[in-house]
Amino acid sequence: QVQLVESGGGLVQAGGSLRLSCAASGIMFNIYGMGWYRQAPGKQRELVATIASGGSTDYADSVKGRFTISRDNAKNTVYLQMNSLKPEDTAVYYCAMRNLGGEYSRWGQGTQVTVSS
Fold first, then answer.
1. Average pLDDT for the chain
2. Residue ranges, the chain, pLDDT below 50
3. How far apart are CA 41 and CA 28, in angstroms?
């Protein structure tokens, strides 16, 4: 079955960097778009970044210029490089697979990112 496993979260000071990874199994990874979402306490889940099967990317305005999404199809892995982190980036980050109908239908378990001021 489809599995998405995130890693790389942690505690970092404001201005620091983290790189999240999401390893996929059970799918033909290269044909699916992937995305990173986040959810902070008391807030709705927010789409942070997406990457299409062909490699085109899109970002939420709040992270443009600071975050970079990428994928390595040989490793079935999608990454989120997060630079210049701010306390408001604190959240649980989830990777998700976009199915061929355009919906994010498979989710990882999430990884906590905490940015201290």
1. 96
2. none
3. 33
